[in-house]
């Protein structure tokens, strides 16, 4: 039943038989993964399993040995330079720890992708930057602040504003709530869900945060044994017979987090 519904949905990222390695070491081996338009996919796995490697390979920051990656219906290897740049503008990335440029203000950080990809007058880039700042729930006076003057939560929001600078379709978030206190993390999760609903974003979120997985992710994929071990709903995770998956989703921490009702909205689709 679920498969029929998934098949009808538009695939915005399709990874097929992806193999990535460093020297003798194979990190990902014939990995397959699809992400559907409008969903928030939570990507989990043990430390060192290769979550960041996968994200960086999809973003073409790392080379792959074999396999194909289709983003928004286009095969990166088959498009020309102009189409490649156009595709890049439809992707937003929030790297772990925010990764803002410390010598630039929030506004200038947000305007970096605009400068790189668009040819806009300064006044328009200023207006757009203020729009993004508002969109992520920051006050306008954050625009002229430097990253060192911001709290951890504000840095995450500013980095998210930069990821949204070019109005992307697909956003990659690498551990967006790491380092935030539980309230800050819950607010950030709420913001992600809100942006998905209002902007129609598709979100690929690498996370260790069980609260995020339980509260905002529509689907979960687990990386293990160099591939996607299991993907689906929380119930699929709970039913999956693997020691790491069982201890992760049924462990003490997981049990202490209230799960939403299956019919109540987010996690089960
Ligand atoms: N540039 C690189 N050169 C060599 N090995 C690398 C490189 N990048 C990553 N690796 C290795 O690939 C493996 C997967 O790393 P990765 O950072 O993707 O793990 P992860 O699942 O994101 O872990 P974590 O949850 O701790 O962030 C690790 O063994 C790492 O040492």
TrEMBL record:
It comes from the Bacteria. Keywords: ATP-binding, Nucleotide-binding, Transport. GO terms for molecular function: ATP binding. The keyword Oxidoreductase does not apply. Residues 13-250 form the ABC transporter domain. InterPro entries: AAA+_ATPase, ABC_transporter-like_ATP-bd, ABC_transporter-like_CS, P-loop_NTPase. Pfam families: ABC_tran. Belongs to the ABC transporter superfamily. This is Phospholipid/cholesterol/gamma-HCH transport system ATP-binding protein.
């Amino acid at each position: 039943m679920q498969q029929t519904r998934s098949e009808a949905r538009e695939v915005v990222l399709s990874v097929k038989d992806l193999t990535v390695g460093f020297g003798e070491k194979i990190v990902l081996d014939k990995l397959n993964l699809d992400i559907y338009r409008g969903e928030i996919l939570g990507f989990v796995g043990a430390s060192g399993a290769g979550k960041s490697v996968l994200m960086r390979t999809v973003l073409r920051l790392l080379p792959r040995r074999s396999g194909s990656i289709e983003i928004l219906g286009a095969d990166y290897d088959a498009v020309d330079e102009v189409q490649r740049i156009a595709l890049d503008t439809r992707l937003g990335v929030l790297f772990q720890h925010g990764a803002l440029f410390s010598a630039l203000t929030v506004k200038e950080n947000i305007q970096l992708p605009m400068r790189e990809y668009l040819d806009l007058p300064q006044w328009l880039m200023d207006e757009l930057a203020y729009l993004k700042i508002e969109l992520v729930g920051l006050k306008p006076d954050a625009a002229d602040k430097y990253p060192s003057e911001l709290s951890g939560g504000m840095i995450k929001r500013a980095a998210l504003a930069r990821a949204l600078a070019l109005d992307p379709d697909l956003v990659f978030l690498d551990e967006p709530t790491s380092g935030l206190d539980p309230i800050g993390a819950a607010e950030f999760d709420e913001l992600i869900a809100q942006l998905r609903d209002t902007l129609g974003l598709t979100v690929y979120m690498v996370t260790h945060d069980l609260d995020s997985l339980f509260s905002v992710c529509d689907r979960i994929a687990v990386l293990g044994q160099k591939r996607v071990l299991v993907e689906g709903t929380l119930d699929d995770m709970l039913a999956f017979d693997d020691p790491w998956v069982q201890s992760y989703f049924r462990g003490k921490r997981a049990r202490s987090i209230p799960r939403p009702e299956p019919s109540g909205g987010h996690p089960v689709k």
